Each structure stands twice: as structure tokens, then as C-alpha cells.
Amino acid sequence: MKLKQLEGLLGNLQQFSNPKVELEQYPTGPHIASRVLYTAENSFGDVGDRVVADFGCGCGTLGIAAALLGAEHVVGVDVDSQSLEIASANAEELEVELNLVQCDLGNLDFRGQIVDTVVMNPPFGTRKKGVDMEFLRVALAVASQAVYSLHKTSTREHVKRAALRDFNASSAEVLCELRYDVPHLYKFHKKKEVDIAVDLWRFVPRGA
Ligand SMILES: C[S@@+](CC[C@H](N)C(=O)[O-])C[C@H]1O[C@@H](n2cnc3c(N)ncnc32)[C@H](O)[C@@H]1O
Fold first, then answer.
1. How remote is the CA of residue 48 from the centroid of ligand 1, in Å?
2. Residue 120 alpha carbon, nearest atom of ligand 1
3. What is the pTM of this model?
4. Which of 27, 123, 140, 197 is least enclosed, having the fewest CB within 10 Å?
């Protein structure tokens, strides 16, 4: 599938109808989401015929992109049941299979490297300190091939240190720096849109 076609399909997905600020529910737009998955597949071969997990899947954008690019199985995990209902409807609309699990990532008792690739746009940790690092810890414990994740550029050194020193990564590479538009979803946002510098990371777990 071509990049533009993927972006077009993702652009039609429903997003959070009633976003929950405490869960940092803001969607990954189709431009960024399509490029993350397209790069994972076309530069590294981490999606096609792979088992892919989308952590904090929300309305399913990243997981659905993985399915459209030929993933063998896709599992989406999110703590919020309303988002998972939307993710399910989105998958049905595009006729792709998405296995959905409602769970707090911090409580997930996965044993071993049970998926090939994790893709995620975790909460940045602005509402619940440390939740971004908790997502990364779990992702690097369950992925055998690669983890793709978005983190604020301002946290770059911290993310790198934690991944390599504490979370089982053998490499941690920033693939590109992106401008991430957080739309005006919440009352406390004064501007129409907030533009944040975000890194797209690729981590390789030890033993891959
Ligand atoms: C920034 S949004 C990203 C949503 C979606 N992946 C996307 O790219 O559009 C973060 C997501 O993480 C979920 N989330 C927050 N805390 C969580 C937790 N402890 N366990 C599982 N999911 C969580 C939220 O419900 C939300 O859907």
C-alpha cells in the first residue's frame, strides 16, 4: 500500500468522542501515524507478517495502520472501554482484524517476548508522572524485534538512559523529530492547537 493511500484511510477514522484528560487522550493524526508505520515496515520490515501490539491504542489508529500494512496479528491494549469501542468500529469499517484488550498497561502480566513489534503513542506523563516510562518498560519486555514510540523531545536524554540502562534495550535511536499538533480538546488549552516537538524512537530489545 502506498503512503498516501494509508494516510487517506487513517484520515477517515473516528477519534475520541469524549477525551479524558487524566488519560492524556489525544489522537495521533493520519500524517504522523501513516509515516510511523510506513517507516517501520519499509525501512525495517517490522510490520508485515509480524505480531504487532499497539499500547494505549485509543481509537486504534496505529494498530489499524499495522493491519493495513499486512501484520499477521494486531493486539490493541487500552485502559478505556469507550475508546476500545471506537477502535472496534474503526477496524470493522476498514475490514481489518484488531484484537482488543481492556487493561491498565501497568498491571499487564505479560511473560516474555510474546509479540514481535510494539507501536505506541503513550501518554507523555504530564498528568500522571512516569506513565510514559512505564509504557516503555512494558513494551521492551514483551517485544522481540522492535518498539516504535513517540516521546517529547525534551525528554530525549532521559528516555535514552532509561531504555538502555534499565529496560532491556540494546539500541535506542531517534528516527526523526516531529511537530505534534495537540488539538484543542480540553478546556484548559487556551490556544486552538498546541504544537509540541516529539521524537519518533526505534528501540531494539536485547536478544533481537
Ligand atoms: C496519547 S493517547 C494515544 C491514542 C492512540 N494510540 C493514538 O495514537 O491515537 C494515549 C492513550 O493511552 C491510553 N492510556 C493512558 N493510560 C493508560 C494505561 N495506564 N494503560 C493503558 N492505556 C492507557 C489512553 O486511554 C489513550 O488512549
1. 24
2. 6
3. 0.95
4. 197
Query: Cα 19 from chain centroid?
Result: 17
Domains and CATH numbers, the chain: 3-205 (3.40.50.150)
Is the CB of residue 27 below 6 angstroms from any atom belonging to ligand 1? yes
Give, as one character, the DSSP assignment of residue 28.
P
Which ranges in the chain belong to alpha helices (H)? 3-10, 30-42, 61-68, 81-93, 131-142, 156-161
Give the atom of ligand 1 at the shortest distance from the alpha carbon of 80: 25
DSSP H helical segments within 17-167, as ranges?
A: 30-42, 61-68, 81-93, 131-142, 156-161
For residues 203 and 169, give the distance between their C-alpha atoms in angstroms, rounded to a whole number.
6
* Ligand 1 and 24: CB distance under 6 A: yes
